[in-house]
Amino acid sequence: RKEVEQDPGPFNVPEGATVAFNCTYSNSASQSFFWYRQDCRKEPKLLMSVYSSGNEDGRFTAQLNRASQYISLLIRDSKLSDSATYLCVVNLSGGGADGLTFGKGTHLIIQP
Amino acid sequence: NAGVTQTPKFRVLKTGQSMTLLCAQDMNHEYMYWYRQDPGMGLRLIHYSVGEGTTAKGEVPDGYNVSRLKKQNFLLGLESAAPSQTSVYFCASSYFWGQSSYNEQFFGPGTRLTVL
Fold it and tell me: A79, B27, B66, B75: which is deepest, by most CB within 10 A?
């Protein structure tokens, strides 16, 4: 089983719609979870951390399901500027500096 | 603050040539990382450093060497470039806060390397 797995997409979504995607991870002992955003030919940037209780930042909501070992990202009222690749990132080693494992990303295209 | 910067932004090498990629950060971060990103492969860790004077191997270290002589700089070297090393290279840096493993990584803009 791949360590951090995402649906590569692309997800083609009309502007204003709600879109959600999941990411599964292999190590049940993982402690840290993040969503990064990467625009075309740019560097990844942190979108949000994912906490056990779930967290929300404006139109973005992240959830963690430890029992099923997945995290999710929900985007409401999607904007054209949300078009990007969303990387799921998990610290599989539980805390080591080399522990961050990046998923291959989910490509999101918001259409006018 | 400039954040994380990388030099050069683009480079074309011939097989067998050597080069050094420079990463600099002005955030006083202890941890620094080198990744490569290839289509369909995601980001893969090459080497990393937990402090000045220390380095360690990541997932794909073969063909690369690194040095961290100053806290703010992390160098990635290719001694004899191969076409398989054609990739986009990202440097990143982070704090590390105790056992919480909160380690948001701040990335540089990347270096696009082509080996012919």
Answer: B66
Does residue A15 contact residue A112 with C-beta atoms inside 8 Å?
yes
Which among A34, A43, A99 has CB closest to B108? A43
Mean pLDDT within B106-114 = 96
Task: Specify whether the CB–CB gap between B67 and B14 falls below 8 A.
Answer: no
Residue A104 near chain B (CB below 8 Å)? yes
The span from the CA of B60 to the CA of A5, in Å, is 19
Interior angle at CA A85, CA B82 and CA B49, nearest 5: 50
Confidence of residue B100 (pLDDT cuts 50, 70, 90): very low
Cβ within 8 Å, pair A34-B104 = yes
Strands A11-14 and A55-57: unpaired
Closest CB to A46 among B58, B100, B104: B104
- What mean pLDDT do residues B19-29 have? 96
Q: Taking CB atoms and an 8 Å limit, are B43 and A34 in contact across chains? A: no
| Rg (alpha carbons) of chain A, rounded to whole number | 13
Most confident of A41-55, A74-88, B26-40: A74-88
Tell me if B92 sits within 8 A of B5, measured CB to CB: no
Q: Please count the residue pairs, one from chain A and one from chain B, whose beta carbons lie less than 8 angstroms apart.
A: 54
